[in-house]
Amino acid sequence: MLAGKRILLIIGGGIAAFKSLDLIRRLRERGATVTPVLTRAAEEFVTPLSASALSAQKVYRDLFDLTDEAEMGHIELSRAADLVVVAPATADLMAKMAGGHANDLASTLLMATDKRVLIAPAMNVRMWEHPATQRNLATLQGDGILTVGPDEGDMACGEYGPGRMAEPLAIVDAVSAALQDGPLKGKHVLVTSGPTHEPIDPVRYIANRSSGAQGTAIARALSALGAEVSFVTGPADVPPPDGVRVIKVQTAQQMLEAAKAALPADAAVFAAAVADWRMAQASDSKIKKGPDGAPALTFAENPDILATVSQMTKGRPKLVVGFAAETDDVIAHATAKRERKGCDWIIANDVSPETGIMGGTENAVTVISAEGADAWPRMSKDDVARKIAARIAEALS
Ligand code: C5P
Predict the structure, then answer these.
(1) Active site positions, annotated
(2) What atom in ligand 1 is closest to the CA of residue 321?
(3) What is the Å distance from ligand 1's center to 323 Cα?
């Protein structure tokens, strides 16, 4: 499944480095060629000899080696691969990547590469949760770096929480997804997902019950068909899929800016449940209870992201897909919505409480396009996502 693929595997200095030896084995079992690069710190955990024996390749080390440089310069090394994988990606390596440092072989390769980069973070739970690491993660994801894990569990340091490196087989899956040769290879698709949170004051906000499940499934299905996916998500219940470019936002206005910044795209799917209104003026300080009773909240209308992108005169994606969650006259309302917003397809669904669709695992949708309405039977949200992705692939082919 990875036959003929070349992976440059940068092994960072963490206790999880020993799992990277197993990762080499797993990748090779599937036909990939793995060229390991060890950071100086990684050599404290695994030896160049074991990495070389398992990969059957020359191992590149941080020590400046004139022979290495003459045989294969670092620029060439960074580009000879189909994918660069960093496992384990330590807090330090992530910080270097986010800051654009190039002061050792690993960071220089990461700066010089023209290939996609997948990182498998691994570190102590506090280090993972540290605002600096989370800031770096957001920067890296915004730069298009793909991530897998970390997992939650017991850590080598005795603590419990997120920070364990993803298991080698999960990393192999993410590698396969990143190298997928599907019908959407070479296509860039923007997906919005999740709810938005509109602040009332620093502690309160307006939101809705969207879990982000359908948008996440669509992003995953598009990626599985080989698309490069920019996933702009509000604060969803479900985690974003591995292997896509994740841009996290809170508000509708931020979502619009992030969506515009992600263009150009071949297609865009607007699955987010965007709040229709925000506070006309969110308060900078917490609104206090007082003798005057409840405050009156004044709303302002949020921008319509789907309509804005659908009606762009320059740089509009070839295919724009919106959703319509309706409780009555689904087809009629959704057909009118398609006209009003100017998108190509509307995926309409009935979210009446008795359907159990909102927050559930199944969906029953009707796809409305210029050709008319196509009603699909009720199926899992994952299956709906796969069918939508396949239809997008057909439309873009
Ligand atoms: O108008 P309504 O909210 O029903 O439209 C739903 C569709 O429009 C969804 O695809 C949703 O993602 C998109 N939308 C948007 N920006 C808004 C409101 C809705 O992109 N402010």
Answers:
(1) 157
(2) 10
(3) 7
Superfamily of domain 6-178: Flavin prenyltransferase-like (3.40.50.1950)
What is the Å distance from ligand 1's center to 171 Cα? 35
Probe target for ligand 1 pocket from 190, 304, 321, with the most ligand atoms within 8 Å of CB: 304
| pLDDT tens-place string over residues 77-121 | 888 899 999 999 999 999 999 999 998 999 999 999 988 899 999
Average pLDDT of the residues of the chain: 92
Query: Does the beta carbon of 272 lie inside 6 Å of ligand 1?
Result: yes
pLDDT tens sequence across 225-244: 889 999 999 999 999 987 88
Q: Which of 118-122, 295-299, 357-361, 365-369 has the lowest mean pLDDT?
A: 357-361
Task: Determine how many CB atoms are found less than 10 A away from the CB of residue 394.
Answer: 9
- CB neighbourhood size of 233 (10 A): 27
pTM of the shown model: 0.73
* Site of tokens 């669509």: 218
Per-residue pLDDT band for 354 (boundaries 50, 70, 90) equals confident
Residue 244 contacts residue 232 (beta carbons within 8 Å): no
- Fold matches, 6-178 and 188-396: yes
Atom of ligand 1 nearest to the CA of 326: 4
**pLDDT category, 27, cuts 50, 70, 90?**
very high
- Report which protein residue has its CA nearest ligand 1's atom 5: 324
Provide the 10 A C-beta neighbour count for residue 314.
6
pLDDT in tens, 380-389: 888 899 899 9
CA 114 to chain centre: 19
Tell me if 323 CB under 6 Å of ligand 1.
Answer: yes
Q: Cα(175)–Cα(247) distance, rounded to whole angstroms? A: 20
- The domains of the chain are located at 6-178, 188-396
Q: Quote the DSSP letter at residue 273.
A: B
Distance 325 CA to ligand 1 centre (A): 9
Tell me how far the alpha carbon of residue 279 lies from the centroid of ligand 1, in angstroms: 18
Place of tokens 């050709």: 371
Q: Is 212 in the pocket of ligand 1 (CB under 6 A)?
A: no
Give tens-digit pLDDT for 36-82: 999 999 999 999 999 999 999 999 997 656 566 666 678 888 888 99
Index of the ligand 1 atom closest to the CA of residue 309: 20
Helix (H, G, I), strand (E, B) or coil at 225: coil
* Fold for the domain defined by 188-396: Rossmann fold (3.40.50)
